[in-house]
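BUG: 3D viewer hangs when loading the predicted structure for this chain

Environment: internal workstation, default settings.
Expected: structure renders.
Actual: progress bar stalls at 90%.

Input used:
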Amino acid sequence: MLGEPSNDIATLCKSANINKWARYKPVHILNTPFCDIKTSYRGTAGNCGITVPSGGTVEAIIGYYDKNYNGYAYTLPSGGAASPYRLGDFLGYNHNAYAPFSSLFVNGTKFGVTDKIMVSAGYYYPYLKADDCLLLEDFSSLENCYFGAALVKDGSVAYCYTMDKVIKGVEDLEVTFAKSGNWVQGSYSIVPFLSTARYSSLQTGSTMAGTYYPLPVMKPKTVSIVSTSESVSVSVTITATYASSSKTTVTVSIKNNGKEGLKDVYVDCRLSAVKDYNDGLVMGEDSKVIDTILAGHTESVTFTNVGNVVYNGKLCFCNWGTCRFKNRTIVKRYHILYDGDE
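Structure tokens produced before the viewer hung:
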């Protein structure tokens, strides 16, 4: 599985081919030759054998997004009494494990000076993820942090905001930037982070004191804030009708509130909240394209073969953002992606 020339314990436990995102794998545990992997997979440091990068400000962690795995590095046991190799650490090892996140989602790329900017992370919440893959809650340094994002302009934080609750036990990681006045026009990089500092309101300028962590795998996204006449604004209405125990009919209506027409508007129905728009479709998912939505007009698409998911005895529908259909009611917003001429 690891492709090593030898099967001796030392060779396997220090293999560079071990998947760092597997929950059960060799980790450094001080002076412990035998242990219960179900409780000791966090290792002595409590971070599951992974070095978690951090900084004292958002600006200090931006550079990690240019590094492999955004600076998250796997620290192998070194052998000897202080850090013994244990073959039992491989019990439950999943060589195909995946990271806790997929992509960063933003509700557009061009915003008017009064628009809301919604930022969410494609997060594998525990009930959506296998037991043998790492979750954010497995990291002692991260489980009590707040998810947030910063709008960074010319290398400095212009606006910053976090959720009100720590990530432990939270299903959707999402923040909405809303301002009473106008945004300053220009190009911004949206940088996601986890932080020990909580922003109960939109912060302008420098960040609060605390420890900041980049998120693994995902990358910042670039957006622009322009005059209202240049921006694209849409309203989305979604209705869902129960069809059977395995299928739901979903209609998505999109109104173009802008002053110019939109072309090539892509609407996706997904069964997982962590999929990006360019991920391949699976059974029960669908994708449609609206050729043109004229200014001030509304166009609709209907999906008639959308699969359902059962969770805790309740019927659920998930799209590729954070929309869910629970007990035949949409309780979260629907994400769309448009591409092409504006």
